[in-house]
Amino acid sequence: MQKAPMLIAAFILGGFAVVGVGVVAVTHAMTDTRIAENQRQAMLTKLKAIVPAERVKNDPLADRIQVSDEALLGMPVTDVYRVRDGEQPVALVLRPVVPDGYAGPIKLLVSVLADGSLGGVRVTEHHETPGLGDKIDEKKNPWIIEQFNGKSLRNPKPERWKVKRDGGEFDQFTGATITPRSVVNAVKNTLLFVQKQGDDLYQLPAIGSQPASESSDPVNSAPPPPPAKAPISTAAPAAQAAAGMSDNANQKGKS
Ligand SMILES: Cc1cc2nc3c(=O)[nH]c(=O)nc-3n(C[C@H](O)[C@H](O)[C@H](O)COP(=O)(O)O)c2cc1C
Fold it and tell me: Would you say the CB of residue 140 lies under 6 angstroms from ligand 1?
């Protein structure tokens, strides 16, 4: 019987397996960290494009809260990032969802400056038709920049927050009114939400940055599970996870 050579071979094979698994694990951990940091930077870039960038003196991604108003924001739970210049509130950046796009939900990034006007609006995910509804994407058309920058509930008045075809002030697209109508309504609702909550949104304790494990894409995370009933969540992340409020499930990225 030649047991010794077989044992040696088994040990060598086992050694290779252990080393192989270790290398994969270390590479995976390093890659995850880099991906999370890249996503963080991408989010910051998008955010800074719709706020006065020179006044971003905090880390808005860490100064995050979660709010709950599905009627106005389109989802059970919505992330809000606060931008501050020292003690001065600069902007709230919300991530509402347009529930009634032509081809499904449309995810937005909406910056509301401290004076109640819009710093800007961007689409972070949509499925609207190329050449028709996809003109809401600022890479395809300047519509979203031209229509919303500087607007507020004072200008135009709430009853004029409609597309022109419906008697409002916002341009629709030729042959594609459904998409802009839905976006205009969602942006108006976001302004109404901020107006309703007032300065409280700046006062609530932050729950911190989105952990990498909660989101493969901090800009385009998919619908979270149903939230607790509270209108505004101030729970710590661990408590939120226990209450089913974390922004974690079914992450799907697309920019
Ligand atoms: C294949 C197809 C795709 C369409 N995609 C969109 C779209 O993405 N957004 C949109 O608002 N309308 C889209 N429409 C048009 C709508 O069905 C609807 O006719 C239009 O939004 C109404 O606007 P209008 O009254 O200005 O024509 C699409 C129509 C077809 C046939």
Answer: no
Domain extent for 86? 1-255
pTM: 0.79
Please indicate whether residue 128, judged by its CB atom, sits closer than 6 Å to ligand 1.
yes
Supply angle C-alpha 216, 144, 55, rounded to 5. 70
Cα(203) to ligand 1 centroid in Å equals: 42
Q: How many CB atoms lie under 10 A from the CB of residue 55?
A: 16
Tens digit of pLDDT per residue, the chain (255 long)?
Answer: 577 888 888 888 888 888 888 888 887 777 888 888 898 899 899 999 999 999 999 999 999 999 999 999 999 999 999 999 999 999 999 999 999 999 999 999 999 999 999 999 999 999 999 999 999 999 999 999 999 999 999 999 999 999 999 999 999 999 999 999 999 999 999 999 999 999 999 999 999 887 765 554 444 444 443 433 334 544 334 334 333 333 333 333 333
C-alpha–C-alpha distance, residues 178 and 61, integer Å? 32
Residue matched to tokens 């979270």: 224
179 Cβ closer than 6 Å to some ligand 1 atom = yes
184 Cβ inside 6 Å of ligand 1: no
Question: Ligand 1 in contact with 178 (CB < 6 A)?
Answer: yes
Task: State the closest ligand 1 atom to the C-alpha of 173, by its place in the atom list counted from 1.
Answer: 26
Domain total in the chain: 1
Please give the number of the atom of ligand 1 that sits closest to the Cα of 181: 11
Measured by CA distance, the residue closest to atom 9 of ligand 1 is: 133
User: Could you tell me where the beta strands, DSSP code E, fall in the chain?
Assistant: 64-67, 78-85, 88-94, 97-98, 106-113, 118-125, 232-233
